[in-house]
Write a structure and sequence with these properties.
Elements: H1 2-15, H2 18-21, E1 30-34, H3 76-83, E2 106-108, H4 118-123, H5 129-147, H6 149-158, E3 160-164, H7 167-171, H8 178-183, H9 186-206, E4 211-215, H10 224-230, H11 239-262, E5 267-271, H12 274-282, H13 332-345, H14 347-350
Parallel strand pairs: 1-2, 1-3, 3-4, 4-5
Helix pairs in contact: 1-13, 3-13, 5-6, 9-11
Length: about 350
């Protein structure tokens, strides 16, 4: 029944995407910010241990080769870009593909292990949101030089800007940093992140962005790595982590409402990842999956990034039935499921 309901919602959403059927994208560009959930290869060009440019990453992607995506295949953002009518994906800004006309349809600044806090990114030598914003300004200058200020402004205001962050702030910083954990309560830490989010959106707005979609936190306590690290051997979702995610999601939703009241021409949507992913984890078989506790790569309990490699013992041969590809990131099949939900939720961004 859930699959039927989702199919109806997606069908209705697709019906609104009239230009796609005419071979033209719905929006002029897609610009992406954030972390490893959105990274399509920026970390390949950094001196960081947080990389995914080696097998088995990318084994089910085009040409069956790694690109820097933290997945066996397509990201949810890749499917979203396809749904919007584009025939190519926004290139990683640090890649050689991010030049000339390739930039006119958008670009991708996301960096694995980045977060709302610049200090989170600095721990892993990732691209902080502050730096991603600087790159965005640089990107805008390049676009203006190609098409002129008026046409460029249309691209910036009409383009959809996506942001995914927060998971690294918690999993790779707050929960493993005793000093940070003792200084801030979960509620206070969430306030820090929301303040950064608000500032980031305000800066994007100042730079001409008018369509912004931000993903919520996922159920942090259900990530295979989180269960392994923080589950005290109980082999089930860690509820205190999920509680923190729910609290943060409420705060960012309230911040979004405040920003929209302040800027009447701003289309800002919180795209809920928490609910759809939790439903998938709790009832995988209802959506064609059979494994939600363990990931496909290696033992499926702790491997991610460098630990998920071609020598990792136990990696599954077929990831389509797994909710998670590695211990932190969803599989391509799960990303397809999530992208369908994002499409239905994000109609306001393209209407």
């Amino acid at each position: 029944m859930e699959r039927v309901r989702r199919g109806v919602v997606v069908a209705l959403a697709m019906a609104l995407l009239v230009p796609v059927s005419q071979g033209q994208p719905v929006v002029p560009a897609v610009i992406i910010f954030g972390d490893s959930v959105m990274d399509v290869g920026n970390n390949n060009h950094l001196l960081t241990l947080v990389k995914a440019n080696f097998p088995p990453y990318g084994r089910d992607f085009t040409h069956h080769s790694p690109t820097g995506r933290f997945c066996n295949g397509k990201l949810a953002s890749d499917y979203t870009v396809e749904n919007l009518g584009f025939t190519s994906y926004p290139p990683a800004y640090l890649s050689k593909e991010a030049t000339g006309p390739n930039l006119l349809n958008g670009t991708n600044f996301a960096s694995g292990a980045s977060g709302y806090l610049d200090k989170t990114a600095s721990l892993y030598n990732a691209i902080s949101l502050s730096q991603q914003l600087k790159y965005y300004k640089e990107y805008q200058e390049k676009v203006v030089s190609m098409v002129g200020k008026t046409n460029a402004s249309t691209i910036f205001s009409g383009g959809v800007h996506f942001l995914s962050a927060g998971s690294s702030d918690y999993i790779q910083n707050y929960y493993i940093n005793p000093l940070l954990y003792k200084v801030y309560t979960p509620d206070q830490f969430a306030d820090l992140l929301v303040h950064s989010f608000t500032s980031f959106v305000e800066n994007l707005y100042t730079l001409g962005a008018r369509r912004i979609g931000v993903t919520s936190l996922p159920p942090l306590g259900c990530l295979p790595a989180a269960i392994t690290l923080f589950g005290e051997g109980k082999n089930r979702c860690v509820q205190r982590l999920n509680k923190d995610a729910v609290s943060f999601n409420k705060k960012i939703s309230n911040a979004t409402d405040s920003l929209k009241k302040k800027h009447s021409d701003l289309k800002l949507v919180v795209l809920d990842i928490y609910g759809p992913l939790l439903g998938l984890i709790k009832n995988p078989e209802q959506n064609g999956f059979f494994e939600a506790r363990k990931a496909c790569c290696g033992t499926g309990t702790i491997e991610t990034s460098l630990l998920c490699n071609k020598r990792s013992p136990g990696t599954c041969s077929n990831a389509t039935n797994y909710v998670f590809w590695d211990s932190v990131h969803p599989s391509e099949a799960a990303n397809k499921f999530l992208s369908d939900n994002l499409l239905a939720q994000g109609i306001d961004l393209i209407s």
